[in-house]
Amino acid sequence: MSETTPILELRGFQKYYYLKPNLWGQTTATVHALEPVDLTLAPGETLSIVGESGCGKSTLGKAVVRLHQPTAGEIWLGGVRVDKVKGAELKAFRSRIQIIFQDPFSSLNPRLTVHEMLAEPLHNFSKTKSGAQTDARIAELLDMVGLPKDAGGRYPHQFSGGQRQRIAIARALAPDPDVIVCDEAVSALDVSVKAQIVNLLGDIQKKTGMALLFISHDLAIVEHLTHHVAVMYLGEIVEKGSRKAIFGGAHHPYTKALISAVPVPDPVIRRARILLEGDVPSPLNPPPGCRFHTRCPFATQLCRTEAPSLRAIGPDHMTACHFDTFPERKTDHATT
Q1: Closest Cα to residue 168, out of 99, 226, 119?
Q2: What integer is the mean pLDDT of 271-294?
Q3: Per-residue pLDDT, 329
Q4: CB 74 within 8 A of CB 66
Q5: Domain holding 140: CATH number?
Q6: Lowest mean pLDDT among 107-111, 132-136, 163-167, 329-333
Q7: Can you tell me whether residue 201 is helix, strand or coil?
Q8: Range with the poorest average pLDDT among 20-34, 54-68, 73-87, 238-252
Q9: Helix and strand tally (H, E) in the chain?
Q10: Where are the beta strands (DSSP E) in the chain?
Q11: Distance CA 280, CA 6 (A)
C-alpha cells in the first residue's frame, strides 16, 4: 500500500431496507437509508460524519464494518476491495476494522469479566500464541485506555459509564486495527467524561497511527477531534471537506444551520441561530430534487426538480447545492 492509498474508501456506497413483503414475497416499501456515498479516509486521520438523527450516519458505520450488508457500492480497505469477501477473508477484514458503539453498557457482555472480553478478540484473530502473551497484551490495553490492572477481574456493572466506554475502546484496539468506527461513542456520556474520552481517542491515534471514522451529532467535539468532515442529510452527503473548510467557510444551508447551533463558550459572543422550518422527510418517500428543499429558505423550482451533485467549490471542499451564492429569500421561494 502506497502512502497515497486511502486506508478506507467507499465508492457508490448504498443501503436500502425492504419492508412489508406481501403474501407473494414482494416488497411494498423501501427505506432509502443511504444513497450512493463516496468517501475516503487517509491512514492516521479522522473523518467525521455529522447530521441530525435519522440522516443515515449509524447505518453508514454499521454497513462499513459489514454488520449490515450494503445494497450496492464498494468498500476498499488498504487498496483491497472487501465488500464481497466471505469466510477467512471476512475474518481478516474484521480484524482490521473495529467499531465502538454508543451505549457501552449494552455493547459489553455482562457475563464476562474485562479480561475475558479483551481476550476474546485476541483469540479469535490469533493475535497471541500463549496465555502469557494474552495477559501481557491485556495489561497493555488497560494501560492504554487509563484503567488499572485489577480492572481485568471485574464485570461491566462494576464500572462507571466512562470506564465502560474505555473498556469498549480497549476491546476495539485489541486486534490492532487500521480503522475504528466510533458510532456516537461519546454521546451517552457526561460532558466532563466526554472530553476525557475524546482526548483519549486523540492520544491513542497519535500513538498507533489508526484512522477514525467518527460518527456524531455534536459538532463542538467534531471540530476538536477531526481532520475532515462529511455532512449527511436524509441519506446523502450534502457537503464535505477539511475541518477548516467546513467550520471556517461552510457553504450548504444545512451545514450552516448545524454549525449555528453549536454553543459558544463565551457569554459575550452571541452566534446568530439559523432555525430550520419543518421536519426531516421520511426516507420511505424522499422528496424529488434536492432532498433539503422542503426546509431550505432559498429553495427554487430548480431545487424541487433537479438533484444537485457534489462539486468542488474550493481546495478540499465540496458541496451539493445549485448555488454559488444564495438568492434573496422571496415569497415564492418559501418552504413547501
Answers
A1: 99
A2: 88
A3: 56
A4: no
A5: 3.40.50.300
A6: 329-333
A7: helix
A8: 20-34
A9: 11, 12
A10: 8-19, 29-41, 46-50, 72-77, 80-81, 97-100, 179-183, 211-216, 228-233, 236-242, 311-314, 317-319
A11: 33
Percent of the chain beyond pLDDT 70? 96
Structural domain contains residue 3: no
In this model, does residue 335 exceed pLDDT 80?
no
Using one digit for the tens of pLDDT, what is the confidence trace for 130-150?
999 999 999 999 999 999 989
Q: Would you list the DSSP string of 176-192?
A: --SEEEEESTTTTS-HH
Integer angstrom CA distances of residue 293 from 38, 51, 53, 297, 303: 22, 16, 18, 8, 6
Structural domains of the chain, count: 1
Classify residue 58: in a domain, yes or no: yes
Q: State how far the Cα of 42 lies from the Cα of 118, in Å rounded to an integer.
A: 27
Residue 7 has pLDDT above 80, yes or no: yes
Domain that residue 256 falls in: 8-333
pTM: 0.90
Q: Is 234 left (phi over 0), alpha (psi -120 to 50) or beta?
A: left
Radius of gyration of the chain (CA): 21
Is residue 2 a part of any domain in this protein? no
Question: Which amino acid is it at 15?
Answer: K
- Cα separation, 261 vs 273, in Å, equals 6
Residue 60 lies in a domain: yes
Residue in this structure with the C-alpha cell 486506508, named with its chain if needed: 7
Residues paired with 49 in a beta bridge: 215, 230
